[in-house]
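Input:
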Amino acid sequence: MRLELSVTDALAETPWWLSAIKAVVIFGFLVVSTLVMIWAERRVVARMQQRVGPNRVGPFGLLQGLADGIKLALKEDIIPTAADKAIFILAPIISATTCFLAFAVIPFGPVVSVFGQETALQLTDFSVSVLYVLAVTSVGVYGLVLAGWSSGSTYPLLGGLRSSAQVISYEIAMGLSFVAVFLYSGSMSTSEIVSSQDRLWFAIILLPSFLIYVVSMVGETNRAPFDLPEAEGELVGGFHTEYSSLKFALFFLAEYINMFTVAALATTLFLGGWQAPWPLGGAIWAGANDGWWPVLWFVAKLWIFMFMFIWLRGTLPRMRYDQFMKFGWKVLIPLSLLWIAIVATVRAVSNEASIDRQDILIWGGVALAVLLVVSIVWDYVSGRELEQPDDIDKPFDPFGGGHPVPPLPGQQAVAVAVVASPSNADSEVLDA
Amino acid sequence: MNPENYLYLSSILFVIGAVGVLVRRNAIVVFMCIELMLNASNLAFVSFARLNGNIDGQVVAFFVMVVAAAEVVIGLAIIVTIFRTRRSASVDDPNLLKL
Amino acid sequence: MIELLAATPQTSTGEAVAFWCLAPIAVGAAVMILLSRKAVHSALWMATTMIVLAVLFIMQGGIFLGVVQVVVYTGAVMMLFLFVLMLVGVDASDSFVETLRAQRVAGILLGAGFGVLLMAAVSRATFPEAVGVGAANDAAGGHVEAIAEAIFTRYVFTFEVVSIVLITAAVGAMALTHKERLTPRRPQPEQSVDRIRSAHPTPHPSPGVYAQHNAVDTPALLPDGTASEASVPDELRRQGTVRYTELEAANRRADEDGERE
Amino acid sequence: MNPIVPILFLGLLAFGFAAFSILAGSLSGPKRYSRVKLDAYECGIEPTPQPIGGGRFPVKYYLTAMLFILFDIEIVFLYPWAVAFDQLAIFGLIEMLLFILTLGVAYAYVWRRGGLEWD
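Output:
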């Protein structure tokens, strides 16, 4: 029994007290998910490194997040003398407030009757809701920069500047990857994007956009391979070096909730939001997309992305700062601009000359195949031989450059007579 | 509430921006006051768009915002060059940039 | 005259309440831009004014414009201000010497006069009934579609000129601030080979050996009491902010006088 | 106006939580004053008093923020075009390709001049 009200009408009729309850539920959902995420991350990363991970606090260590929170609360709250006190306290408040706001437009489920009142499982929705999320994340970057600056010394300042430069670089790639989704869904409101994906998810037809988004998702939250500004070896703690007690916990909370925000955005825009995965929704179980079930699909997809974050952190080594900034600027942005141009031209042509998608895909495939063949032939014709390491043919010199070195692969170890007098040891051996 | 109040608010903000430009000495703060004046004019544009009921007011405010962003880029580049050569961002030193 | 009075357009009370809460915040934040000592504080007051203005745009039916104001202005332009402020103007506090006599008072008076003039003009003008942007939106099928249709059909020329304005902004910023690299950038492997081949592959002696402090700019003392040059990073030496002991400083001054004669 | 009001609820809730936890943080927890504890943290050694930024001005952050503005404006123009793409059809497409190309010229210039290199 699909309720006949459209999302926007259902939301318009929702009484204010129901919106307030929804806001409290979303806030609770996020805080509890953060505590579970802290526990899950430490357990899964431990499991990947053949150790057990936290299992003391509560059943299976589930209350570890809570224990960390209380421990941080009981620590001394230090404000350094060189710090600018007002902004030092303001920065964590900005970070912690803006990360919650982005969840206001994320749809958890379809129109459902709660306490006898028909409303959509979504706090609010308006015509520019995805741009609103972009606006909230760009205000969230203020928390990083101000935390870095207000701590007084140069390490946090450079740490704050570096991580905010990284966040804004990946925010462009994220913004550009949305354009193709709006092109296909014809609107920026999250509920319409989800409803326009009921036949085919955008992750399938817009795969390059999805891949660019997933990469910029990791870069945007300073996570896994791109977390150099907070790395222990680099600038100690980056922008939150000087923070202690609950202010540090707020930055910790903000980082995890930002991860949930970008993951929720990925599910809404690319994986069909709360809609049941393909075999379940249409064929096997008709009721999968009605009532409260969709919340289950949404949370499941959310946690797939969360596992991906943990997996990346457990396995990939950290990239150097100039490497991933170069990757962000010189690879992601041109790629996504090119992809937008291709998607737009294909769609305009198929709208205009009413060639359906099959022909375009065929012609595209043929063109790619021809390109592949040409490149193989080109390699073969130009006869490029494998680069040879240049010093392979030189005689083996154990003291190459004044430092004892083992022989390179393919070099013979020459038997060297042990030299008695240390004074002219170098010159004699080199001549041998 | 009469929608003309928006116009009064925008003129008050514009005046505060103008006073800021005249009074402050730090080049970056003067530049911020110019941005405040541009924002005030944007508010006036949007209020007129609402009073007259056509959307051109908002589109013009949109273009004002875009051009103001480009202007900030160049303005701050000049201030950065002055700082790098003269170690001070005060408003009295730009004449030193002349060769 | 009566017709004018009768037709004074009224807006919904919700909007009135919101306006009377937000307007004082906007004016207060704008005044604080002028009054705050530190430049970063006035940048933050500026960001608050912009966000309050964004909410005012949204209340007037310009949802797209309000959100764009937050994304482009507060998110990008103010970020550029903060970056430049943090690296440049943080300690460039205002010098209180007024080059022009009584500039402050003149500025405030001039501004107040201009304000009175402006508001008189606004109060004298008669405005049409506040129709709101709803009609235009529905004609084009939604708010964003209406703005898109306006930008990409009626304002096509302005739209293309904007991209040229952005090119000049990029080229100008590059010409003014970008420094070409004088020495070629040596990649990481090459640097590590050079370091091994140099006479000093191990790190410098850590500062503060036998010295009173272990800060980075305190040179380590050799057994005979003189400071060892290698233990202080050369950037600090170039800046001349190395903290020598009194004995060492005295010796250095003596050497310099010796060289000068 | 009313789609914006629920965001206010969530915002007040989040701000209240953040402000409460900062207040609780400063009240709960010991208060043992010591001068060294309040110094800036520089990997355990004494902090070196330096002018912030050490006088040298890393211009790379300014260039990144500048390019961020450039592409932010491009994104903000692309969104309404993508939403109203079907009404604008071929004319809109050519317009936007020209816009992307012109901004591509600026991007190529900055790339070629080395504005994107981080050392």
